[in-house]
Amino acid sequence: MVDKRFWKWMPLVFGVGLAAVLWRGQAVSFGDADDYMAKAHELLTTGGYSREPFHTILPFFRVPLYPLFIALVWKFVPESILAIQVAQVALSVGTSYLLYLIGWLVFKEHRAALVGALVYAFNPLALYWLGDVQSEPLFTFLMAGGLLFFSRMVVAESASRWDAALAGVLFGLASLTRPTAWWVALALSMAVIVFRIDHRPWVRSKKRVLFLIACLVLTIAPWTLSNVRKTGGFILLNDAGGYAFYVGNHPLNLGLYEGSDPRVQADILKSELQFRLTREKTEEWQRTHGYWSLPIQERERLWLHAGWDNLRAEPWATMRLWGY
User: Fold this and answer.
1) Were 88 and a residue from 137, 168, 242, 258 both cysteine, which residue would form a disulfide, CB within 3.0 to 4.6 Å?
2) For the chain, how big is the Rg over CA atoms in Å?
3) Spatial distance between the Cα atoms of 62 and 25, rounded to a whole number of angstroms
4) 38 contacts 54 by C-beta, under 8 angstroms
């Protein structure tokens, strides 16, 4: 199925990824990296996974799959940042392979499939991800796998219910890496039915989609049940929704689009939003509500309400931000 000419490119893809890693060095700069590594340490030392945030700068807990990935790497090469980076390069090669398979499935043409794979492999942003401790390489690999089997479900004449099952499982694993995958998977599944993009009879398409969603739900269900057991309330994946809503829609984000230097503005935003404003909010709520003693669901609700307060106070700024 895979043209042998494809494999000639893979050493170069791996080499470019490795060069990107070595060029960036082993300094960890990504803001979420400390959280991921702390959870990996917890998994290795205690076998547990706390639902409390690692620190108060980012006041939510992480979904578990990327910390588990780090823990598995550190099981063989303890504490090595380089080992994590090299493993991520391998994931990037795997993603390129999956994208080639998707391109071949859709276009039935080697050149189109190869171009699609290489566009990802040499994408500067994808290469940038490899040189730090962040979940995007694992997330993209799992999403590409899910999209491959989803594409088979929609396009391939020989597709079986196992394609829907594997798509659901891989989308579920991606959701346990970054929760946005949950919404992407649901949107793609609904598109099959609403826009009739599957050539099969509607009833059969609906059954396939429902089977995919069932497998997605079953994949994340053990984690959700563990959340219920540990927090006493229903949390599907994690408690970041309210905080992300507040931070993502804050008028300060306009600086990224209306400022003179986006890089400077990004540093200001990180300092203002993730440090000063987050600290001020949590300190205020600690005084008024006893924030850190509240159930996790109540903390998330406070962030959600604060986000709505910003939207109501500055609707025009919010509309401009959404437009950008």
Assistant:
1) 137
2) 21
3) 25
4) yes
The helix/strand/coil state of 147 is: helix
Closest CA to 278 of 310, 318, 246: 246
pTM (2 decimals)? 0.87
Q: Does position 258 have pLDDT exceeding 90, yes or no?
A: no
As a whole number, mean pLDDT of residues 260-285 equals 71
Q: Give helix 33-45 / helix 65-76 axis angle, nearest 10°.
A: 60
Contact between residue 189 and residue 195 where contact means Cβ atoms under 8 Å apart: no
- DSSP classification of residue 176: T
Q: What is the DSSP string of 152-170?
A: HHHH-TT--HHHHHHHHHH
Q: Are 214 and 168 in contact (CB under 8 A)?
A: yes
Q: Which two tokens stand for residue 162?
A: 């196992």
How far apart (Å, rounded) are the C-alpha atoms in residues 33 and 37? 6
**pLDDT tens profile 77-94:** 998 999 999 999 999 999
Q: Structure tokens of 3? A: 């043209």
What are 214's two structure tokens? 């069932």
Residues 291/282, Cβ–Cβ less than 8 Å: yes
